[in-house]
Design goal:
1 helix, ten-stranded mixed sheet, six-stranded antiparallel sheet, elongated
């Protein structure tokens, strides 16, 4: 029942781009790709880190006009985190990549080593961008050895022999691109409120109770997990029992659920939350309700047996972890701690379930238990159910705005 935190091969995804010719076109929170264009192909490039220790990846960035103070307007592109499936690091031997949440993605290896990035979820030689240490910082694109330098206020790529100079550097706006949540390489705080199809990796046990919590909405959860899966949301709390109500359609961000049933198996347990926004600020979440404090796990797994007064879901009830060892709670799971002001702490908390048939008039997404985390102001733009921005919604069409579905009436 644990969620896997491992790097794996990502599935093929559609992506569209739009060329950016001015900083005025750039929007806070949007994704951009800095490339070298040759023919019909776009290739990413990287530059040496200011620390002179590791090269920094500037090929993919998230734009934020309120980032750190910078000397020039164009530098804003390079002072934010880059996290995307668009640019995937291919591990080679002991080399690996991780995310610096303050600035760029960069390589965790010595400058004396060689490595490369790839500009596609599916690796092909055509999208290979390699680098190696030398007297100059060298980059190989499409079989040509180049170096990166700043000239005339612009970053440009030059051939080592100064022949066939490739100076066509293009900034592309990623209109539509799917994003992957990789807990080894880091989440990247700047994905906050970026709308797209979010891929996440989690293993569920069939026909048993699974806790679940996520930092994003999941619309029409049965289409994500399987038609035989039922989700239950926490609605009522007392000293000896937690009651959950069946959810009809959508799962809210930062909200504890129990999932049960037969899950539609995905390759390597990948699931896709379509047209949603990541509501993640780099930390796990918790909220106290009476004597209960609910803890959602988004980063690495935690050992609940080392946490005082904690309870975990096991065999259709919640049990105290006291005097136990190595009771782990994985990402996308939740547990709770309980203070007891009256006598000894119970060793078991019962679970009750209510179906929609018990009270069909009740809105399945209305609950006395609010989201664990208060949300920031959401993106006001309108998207279709595939995560693509829509300028003029069609009357009667189903769209998403501010994390909610609606039917256009104009």
């Amino acid at each position: 029942m644990s969620c896997k935190a491992q790097t794996t091969t990502y599935p093929q995804t559609p992506t569209t781009y739009e060329e950016v010719t001015s900083v005025d076109q750039m929007i806070d929170g949007e994704d951009y790709l800095i490339t070298y264009k040759k023919g019909k192909k776009y290739h990413a490039f990287i530059e040496r880190s200011k620390s002179e220790t590791n090269p920094n990846l500037i090929g993919y960035s998230y734009y934020n006009s309120k980032s750190e103070p910078v000397a020039q307007e164009k530098d804003k592109m390079f002072l934010v985190t880059g996290v995307s499936n668009i640019l995937t690091y291919k591990k080679d031997g002991d080399l690996s990549a991780f995310i610096d949440k303050k600035h760029h993605a960069y390589l965790a290896n010595s400058r004396a080593n060689d490595g490369y990035f790839i500009l596609s979820p599916i690796y092909t030689e055509a999208c290979k961008v390699s680098f190696k240490n030398g007297t100059d910082f060298q980059i190989m694109i499409d079989g040509k050895t180049l170096k990166l330098r700043q000239s005339g206020g612009e970053y440009k790529l030059y051939s080592i022999d100064n022949k066939n100079k490739p100076d066509n550097i293009t900034i592309l706006h990623i209109n539509y691109g799917e994003k992957y949540l990789d807990k080894i390489n880091g989440w990247g705080n700047n994905l906050y409120h970026t709308t797209g199809n979010l891929h996440f990796n989690c293993h569920f046990g069939d026909n048993t109770d699974n806790t679940f919590i996520a930092p994003f909405y999941i619309y029409d959860y049965k289409s994500v997990f399987g038609t035989q899966v039922t989700a239950y949301e926490l609605t009522t709390i007392n000293n000896e029992k937690l009651t959950f109500k069946e959810v009809e359609h959508d799962l809210k961000a930062d909200t504890p659920y129990i999932l049960t049933g037969t899950f539609t198996k995905k390759e390597q347990d990948w699931y896709v939350a379509p047209a949603t926004q990541l509501n993640y600020e780099g930390t796990d979440v918790s909220k106290r309700i009476g004597e209960y404090t609910f803890h959602g796990i988004y980063q690495q797994q935690v050992d609940a047996s080392k946490i005082a007064n904690s309870y975990i879901l096991y065999n259709n009830a919640f049990y105290a972890t006291a005097n136990k060892h190595n009771i782990t709670v994985a990402p996308y799971r939740w547990y709770f701690t309980k203070t007891n002001s009256q006598g000894a702490k119970p060793q078991k908390i019962a679970i009750g379930f209510e179906s929609l048939k018990d009270n069909p008039k009740q809105d399945s997404n209305t609950t006395a238990i609010e989201s664990i985390r208060q949300h920031r102001k959401a993106d006001t733009r309108i998207y279709d159910l595939q995560g693509r921005e829509v300028k003029k919604p069609l009357k009667g069409g189903l769209y998403i705005q501010r994390g909610k579905k609606f039917v256009a009436n104009q």
